[in-house]
Design goal:
single chain; 182 residues; mainly alpha
């Protein structure tokens, strides 16, 4: 399981690097665009469109890292009042549903790119960039997210069979520790 946890960290790191690089690139583009607009009256043509497409990709690549760091929101105010076993089972059920939905979204995004967008030749309105490459890249980000969720799903499933481990309590403890840091 340690090797899988290392792989999970590596995959989350890829998502973090990609999303951070995209954010830095968009910051630089916006800075140059605004500087060019006000100092030289020469804005960068299509910068708004590039930032729009980049922001969509940032979301898909930041999600794996946020999940790995347990930074995504879970509404568990009702589940905390349940006994230990039903709480663990509901936690697993939520993880399984999230994982399945994420795999389905990754597949749907891939199918949309390879089918509809390629066939129609859909392009952005200003730069006339084809849309399908962005959907392919987004589907890879969603696949990374689904893989991270799969590992979390296995962890929560294993916690059902361990009496000493309560996944809900361990996540609560992690959250309290993070709150202390801020």
């Amino acid at each position: 399981m340690k090797a899988i946890d290392k792989l999970q960290g590596f995959l989350a790191g890829i998502g973090a690097v990609v999303s951070s690089t995209l954010i830095f690139g968009m910051m630089a583009l916006i800075f140059v665009d605004v500087t060019g607009r006000f100092l030289f009256n020469k804005p960068i043509f299509g910068s708004y469109e590039v930032v729009q497409m980049g922001m969509g990709l940032v979301v898909f690549y930041a999600l794996p890292y946020a999940q790995y760091k347990k930074g995504l929101v879970r509404v568990d105010f009702i589940i905390n009042y349940f006994p230990r076993l039903p709480r663990k089972i509901l936690w697993v059920l939520g993880d399984v549903i999230s994982t399945c939905v994420c795999y389905a979204l990754a597949y749907a995004c891939y199918l949309h790119a390879s089918g509809t967008l390629v066939a129609s030749g859909a392009k952005t309105s200003v730069l006339m960039m084809p849309l399908y490459p962005f959907y392919y890249v987004a589907s890879v980000g969603l696949l990374l997210f689904a893989l991270i969720l799969t590992v979390d799903c296995v962890h929560s499933l294993l916690s059902v069979f361990r009496k000493d481990e309560d996944i809900v309590s361990s996540v609560d403890a992690e959250m309290q520790e993070m709150e202390k840091q801020f």
